[in-house]
Design brief:
mainly alpha
């Protein structure tokens, strides 16, 4: 498989081993989009040419696309390609910008860890009923797949990864603040 990325600049190269792993896994997970398109086309053929619609394609494609979109958050953090509005920050002196970056990293850590805690609560409820008995939450459709549990579990896993990424980025930002721009080139 060839590398499908555009030529990376130093700002968008995964900085840590975790980031490199996330990008590598994400490149594999992205094939779920292709599979979703293929089975959707097959569903259209089955429905309109053979008058024999399936009961599983819609739910399955929703789950696959949802899993890809969830992974996209951690993937964007890994490549430092998330959306940011930096108009004001770019006008400030370099040191002030670095302080702002560190403050944003602290806020990101709180946000990701808070969401991870909420994700844990959702996952727990999708695996156990209120009495504490094991049961997997199902969709309730004709297929009655475990898709809600799969998606909630993936959400929790991605939020744990994003929390770890936020910790790594925070450490990097503090190194830049305390040691200067040399820490930036060592990463």
């Amino acid at each position: 498989m060839t590398d499908t990325h555009t030529t990376p600049d130093s700002e968008h190269v995964p900085a840590s081993a975790l980031d490199r792993l996330i990008v590598k896994v994400g490149d594999g997970i992205s094939w779920l989009y292709f599979i979703a398109v293929v089975i959707s086309v097959l569903e259209v053929i089955m429905r309109y040419l053979f008058d024999s619609p399936t009961s599983w394609v819609h739910e399955t494609t929703l789950m696959m696309v949802g899993l890809c979109m969830l992974w996209g958050g951690t993937y964007c953090m890994a490549e430092n390609r998330h959306i940011r509005v930096s108009v004001v920050r770019d006008l400030l002196p370099k040191k002030v910008g670095q302080v702002i970056d560190a403050a944003v990293s602290v806020l990101t850590l709180f946000f990701c860890s808070g969401l991870a805690y909420a994700g844990f609560t959702m996952v727990k409820k999708s695996y156990f009923d209120p009495a504490g008995n094991f049961r997997i939450l199902r969709s309730g459709s004709a297929l009655n797949s475990p898709a809600p549990t799969v998606v909630k579990t993936m959400l929790f896993f991605v939020l744990i990864l994003m929390t770890l990424q936020a910790i790594i980025q925070l450490v990097k930002r503090f190194k830049i603040l305390t040691q200067g721009s040399d820490a930036d080139s060592k990463e």
